[in-house]
Amino acid sequence: MELNVKRYTIRNLKSPLVTKPRVFDVVFEDEQVFFEVKQEKRRERVSFEDVIEQIKAAKEEVTGD
Fold it and tell me: How far apart are the first and last CA of the chain?
């Protein structure tokens, strides 16, 4: 079974540095989407859906929406 994996680097485009710093990668693996961050010498992956769910929960806590 062959996996279809594409990786894209997400950079801080508002940074004043000439080479914009890498913040994380977004990884498309078959039907799934992940954010991937380097943590010391390992990579940590979290699903896009989990990130969005946590952002919505945080926004609701702050705004009451």
Answer: 43
- pTM here? 0.77
**Cα–Cα distance between 32 and 20 in angstroms, integer?**
27
Q: What tokens appear for 27 in the block?
A: 């990884």
Do the beta carbons of residue 24 and residue 1 sit within 8 Å? no
pLDDT single digits (tens) 33-56: 999 998 888 999 999 999 999 999
What one-letter code names the amino acid at 9?
T
- Kind and range of the H or E element at 41? none
Rg from Cα positions in the chain: 15
